[in-house]
Write a structure and sequence with these properties.
three-stranded parallel β-sheet, Transcription Regulator spoIIAA, 23 helices, alpha/beta, Rossmann fold, single chain
Length: 715
């Protein structure tokens, strides 16, 4: 049983039960399945009469630790449960969702490794022609908003069976969120899907606890105190104190540097009252405190929640939407986050604090589960592009403390780095060598969300527990952050020494401003792990845009480039950096894109693949895009406005600046430059961006000879 206290006590459970310490469910007697069954015939072969849990996924089933359904499925199997998989079912009826029968405990529904809408549509809202998570890369094998559609079909199939939703698609939609594809704010996916509970972030702890609690006889409605979950209530229970956030705004900056010597938790700090009171009245048993006054009161953190503006308010008021996004991101540290509550019509969406990160031992346990490391045999020889890309790569960590506003990694995995042990990583490399068909001796990546955050954590447990910064590296690298890359460097060296391993490539994104703190790591990387090209992402050259991205100055890139070239020369190699850039990010003017285009030309970069900003759910940059406000600062109706590029044509113009060298873009750029009053940038001089339009040469007129039998008529 869980060490959590009974429902609604609100105990802040820092001493989470170890992931593998639960008594195994009785069905462990069936042993480990070669592959989790996807058909009745496979169940019969295993001797199963039913599944305890059925996972419905929008991805093809690949039994590999880089695929969410495999991780959750094998995790539950390790607890003794019988787990079946329904992968990419037809969704026009409930029949495919009955393929394995009714699960004894619950359905688990996920949109897969990638959001279904981002999977299907480009940033310009064009339909993609392929799907990397489907056999043969075939498009159209998953519905839009897969979590909603699959949940509804599960409900049709077996009405009373509990439905648990999770994965990145659900995780990023746990509260009301701006939806780029419909250009409106949508309700929490919990409401639209009619699911019973939502798991956000890394869900191993939550899914294991839910499975054991339901198996022990609890109803899913009783599971209200599990971290990393969201669910729907009719009303807030008695005994709680509400911090009302709707008086814009939280009185601090998200990116302000905290006082490292102030270890007090502002939510429990007691101050002398200035006459303000916040007592419960007879009609409402909940004590309500406006957010600007919450520091004036002594609060019980475990019984305090923050009231976000309701769905109806954020739908109709973009400034309140930006404010709600700002508060949600400030409540992302699992060690000090509050419960968040948001009203949706007559219902309350209740979001518990984030899960406590996995320990190294628990991470090892998850990655050491008996994965086959291959697609399910039912796919035959069909190629699944996403699997082909990662089949020889190794994930060494989770999380990211970069906090880039356009990225959803931090919102999903958290900013506290969770690392595997060296031994676990090396064991997986040996498994790849021994198990992957056609292995050539090259490991395609040792990384994760980033290449160089392995075992980099806060030096002070006390500072980490009180910190509310969204980035450990912006606006500057925090003095409390460990920046010594020696563990990563040592891991690289040991991995290269494994018999049968010829080369270790590093393909994950490099946080180069962090790498600058450890030249030994950069030299190791450049000397042994760069095969001619290294991809990095400065994203832009202009501070106006970089400040909205929470990315370092372009001077950091210049410094890294100098170090990269110096170590490449020392190693006797000719190698190149391949930088990535984003067009049309909030805060970007056409003048910024012009300056970026000139920077690219000056540095002789001719980008081929370029990105246009994609407003993904929950990202801070998406809040900027929708509201025109900057949630990195205090939000009010008069606060800083952010320039937004919304029209597809304008987005294409900004993208064209990144491909200034493509003559197909020259007419568009010439017109844009004239409208900007920058026609001086049109010409053939080195300091100009695009060449002037060449006058068409007229061919000399040659009179035609009349055709035989026809007289020429003069007009």
């Amino acid at each position: 049983m869980s060490q959590n206290t009974p429902a609604d006590t609100g105990k802040d459970n820092e001493q989470t039960r170890p992931l593998f310490s639960y008594p195994r469910y009785w069905a462990e007697c069936f042993g480990t399945a070669p592959y989790l069954p996807t058909s009745r015939a496979e169940m019969d072969a295993l001797g199963w009469d039913s599944c305890d849990i059925i996972i419905v996924t929008a991805d093809a089933y690949v039994d590999h630790p880089s695929f969410g359904m495999a991780v959750i499925g094998r995790m539950l199997e390790s607890q003794g449960f019988r787990v079946g998989i329904i992968a990419q079912p037809a969704w026009d009826s409930a029949e495919p969702f009955k393929a394995l029968g009714e699960p004894n405990l619950f359905f688990g529904v996920t949109g897969g490794n990638m959001d279904s809408l981002i999977n299907r549509y480009t940033a310009d809202l064009r339909i993609r022609t392929d799907d990397a998570y489907t056999p043969h890369g075939e498009a159209g094998k998953r519905p839009d908003r897969s979590v909603i559609v699959y949940s509804q079909r599960c409900r049709e199939a077996y009405y009373d069976t509990p439905i648990v939703i999770g994965g990145i698609e659900a995780s990023l939609r746990r509260i009301a969120q701006y939806d780029y594809w419909s250009d409106k704010v949508r309700k929490s996916v919990l409401i639209d899907s009619n699911a019973d509970i939502l798991l956000y972030g890394n869900a191993e702890r939550a899914i294991v606890e839910i499975a054991h609690e339901i198996a022990a006889g609890k109803t899913i409605q009783e599971l209200t105190n599990i971290r990393g979950t969201a669910f729907v209530r009719d009303q807030v229970p008695e005994g709680w104190t509400e911090i009302d956030s709707t008086r814009i705004d939280w009185p601090s900056r998200i990116d302000a540097l905290p006082n490292p010597y102030d270890m007090k938790d502002p939510e429990t700090q007691s101050c002398a009252s200035d006459g303000e009171t916040a007592e419960a009245d007879s009609a409402n048993p909940v004590r309500i405190i406006p957010m600007p006054l919450q520091r004036k009161h002594s609060l019980d953190h475990a019984h305090t929640y923050i009231r976000l503006p309701s769905y109806n308010k954020v739908r109709n008021d973009p400034a309140l939407y930006a404010h709600a996004s700002r508060v949600l991101h400030q409540e992302s540290n699992p060690h000090n986050a509050h419960v968040l509550v948001q009203k949706h019509d007559t219902k309350e969406v209740w979001v518990n604090p984030p899960p406590i990160p996995l320990t190294t031992e628990e991470m090892d346990g998850v990655f050491d589960l008996p994965y086959q490391r291959r697609p399910h045999p039912s796919y035959g020889n069909a190629k699944i592009p996403a699997y082909e890309m990662i089949k020889t790569s190794v994930n060494i960590m989770r999380g990211c403390f970069g906090g880039c506003t356009f990225c959803s990694i931090t919102e999903h995995e958290g900013r506290i780095i969770q690392s595997r042990s060296e031994e676990s990583v090396l064991r997986e490399i040996e498994k790849i060598r021994d198990q992957v068909p056609g292995f050539t001796g090259t490991i395609s990546d040792l990384g994760g969300p980033t290449a160089n955050m392995y075992r980099l954590n806060c030096k002070s447990e006390q500072v980490q527990k009180n910190c509310r910064r969204l980035s450990c590296v912006y606006p500057t690298i925090c003095q409390h952050l460990e920046t010594d890359h020696r563990h990563t460097t040592q891991l690289y060296r040991k991995a290269r020494a494994i018999p049968g391993i010829k080369r270790i490539a590093i393909a994950s994104g490099l946080r180069y401003d962090l790498a600058l703190r450890d030249p030994e790591y950069v030299e190791e990387l450049v000397t042994h792990h760069v095969g001619g090209y290294l991809k990095i992402a400065p994203e832009h050259s202009e501070e106006n845009t970089l400040s909205k991205m929470m990315k370092p100055s372009i001077s950091s890139y210049d410094e890294f480039k100098e170090m990269f070239e110096r170590f490449s020369k020392k190693a006797g190699k000719v190698q190149y950096l391949i930088p990535y850039f984003i067009a049309a990010h909030p805060g970007t003017e056409n003048e910024d894109m012009l300056n970026l285009g000139l920077w690219l030309k000056k540095n002789k970069f001719r980008p081929d693949q370029v990105q246009t900003f994609y407003p993904s759910p929950m990202a801070l940059a998406t809040a900027m895009y929708h509201s025109g406000k900057n949630p990195l600062k205090k939000v009010s109706y008069k606060s800083e406005k952010v320039s937004i590029v919304r029209q597809i044509e304008q987005r294409r113009i900004q993208k064209a600046f990144l491909r200034y060298h493509d003559e197909k873009n020259w007419p568009l750029l010439r017109q844009a430059l004239r409208e900007m009053g920058r026609a001086d940038m049109i010409g053939d001089a080195p300091h100009q961006l695009v060449p002037a339009e060449k006058p068409e040469r007229r061919r000399p007129h040659t009179p035609r000879k009349p055709r035989p039998g026809k007289a020429r008529t003069r007009r």
